[in-house]
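Before a colleague's protein record goes any further, I have to sign it off. My question to you is simply how this chain folds and whether the tokens agree. I do not need a full report, just your reasoning and any doubts. This is what I was given:
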Amino acid sequence: MREPYTITGGVYLVLNPGIAKAALLHKLKEALEGGVSVVQAWNNWPDAFGLAEKHELIQAILAIAAVYKVPVLINEEWELLKSTELAGVHFDKIPEDLEAIKAEVQRDFICGITCSNQLEAVYWAEQNKIDYISFCAMFPSASAGSCETVSPETVLKAREITKMPFFLSGGITAENVGALQELDFAGVAIISGILNAASPREATSAYIHALHKLNP
């Protein structure tokens, strides 16, 4: 039976499947021990990965996350919800027909979307009762890829449109997150800040500590 998950905030870890499997799963376990609240499998698959390899890695990720009762989402490839126990999907852009996707998946699932400086995705998310929004990128970041830098004003305007949880991502560290304290956000989405850390457990704990300082 699937766990009913709710996205409320905290540290949202984006896993890069381009990392060797054993190392990636070890980093995941450490990060979960540190207190990660949500996990996303980024669709940055190695070239050799087919459906079988994706399933194998997803199942391994799900098995570890289940111990900590943490939801695992897939980036973009919502079709994988039909053949796995993934908790949901994160879209990089507005999907063409969300209702058709829901009908095909045939079960409830978490849904999030990335927003940049255009508020169209925010209006769409509010109208479609999406679970959360992730703003990318707040600071320059190699991991954030093609994300443009988001102005604080965009996040403030978005909060006037919806009350759903906001995650901030892109170049965020435990040290610079305090610069975003004027914004009403629930958590941070992190890739390299945790995956590239000497100790993903300690890095995650540092992010959580920084978030608690903003909202004691």
Q: What stands out?
A: The domain at 11-214 is CATH 3.20.20.70 (TIM Barrel). The helical segments are 21-34, 51-67, 98-105, 120-127, 152-161, 192-195, 200-214.
